[in-house]
């Protein structure tokens, strides 16, 4: 299988982005829609991952001008295919294009180890958001470990 991750504008791709995020965050993780979809969507840079064969949207993520990476979502049936790493790599490229020096993410506690493999480090106290414990993780952009992706066919 092969996949393409593209930078998209919210205004044009909102239905596709919303569909993926609703399936992952609203239905699966039970995050309220009014929390999942915020005003930041309108000025964030978004990426959309699609299956090259079916053209089906299967993942998404966004980055804000502040350096915040968020809303990384991959449909359950595609999670073993490392689409999340393709999305993260695309967001890091956007961060470089934006001239950012540091990036950060508000990570669920169960994902902290995942982001540590890319050199993100925890900072600040644990807090609750939409019923989930989270912690801020930061990384100077020049210290982000390369995101390696190995996709099998």
From TrEMBL:
Q: Does the keyword Lyase apply?
A: no
Which terms are listed as keywords in the entry?
A: Acyltransferase, Transferase
Molecular function as annotated in GO = acyltransferase activity, transferring groups other than amino-acyl groups
Enumerate the InterPro entries for this protein: Acyl_CoA_acyltransferase, GNAT_dom
The record's section on PROSITE patterns has: GNAT
Keyword presence, Cell wall biogenesis/degradation: no
Q: Where is the N-acetyltransferase domain?
A: 3-142
The name this protein goes by in its record: Predicted N-acyltransferase, GNAT family
Question: Which organism's genome codes for this protein?
Answer: Colwellia chukchiensis
């Amino acid at each position: 299988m092969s996949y393409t991750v593209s930078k998209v504008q919210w205004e044009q791709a909102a239905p596709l982005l919303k569909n993926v995020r609703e399936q992952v965050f609203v239905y699966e993780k039970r995050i309220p829609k009014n929390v999942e979809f915020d005003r930041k969507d309108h000025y964030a840079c978004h990426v959309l991952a699609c299956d090259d064969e079916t053209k089906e949207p299967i993942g998404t993520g966004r980055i804000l001008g502040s350096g915040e990476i968020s809303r990384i979502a991959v449909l359950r049936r595609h999670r073993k295919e490392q689409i999340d790493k393709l999305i993260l790599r695309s967001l890091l490229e956007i961060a470089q294009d934006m001239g950012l020096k540091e990036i950060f993410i508000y990570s669920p506690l169960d994902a902290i180890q995942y982001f540590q493999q890319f050199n993100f480090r925890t900072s600040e106290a644990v807090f609750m958001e939409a019923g989930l414990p989270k912690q801020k993780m930061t990384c100077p952009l020049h210290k982000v470990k390369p995101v390696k992706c190995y996709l099998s066919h």
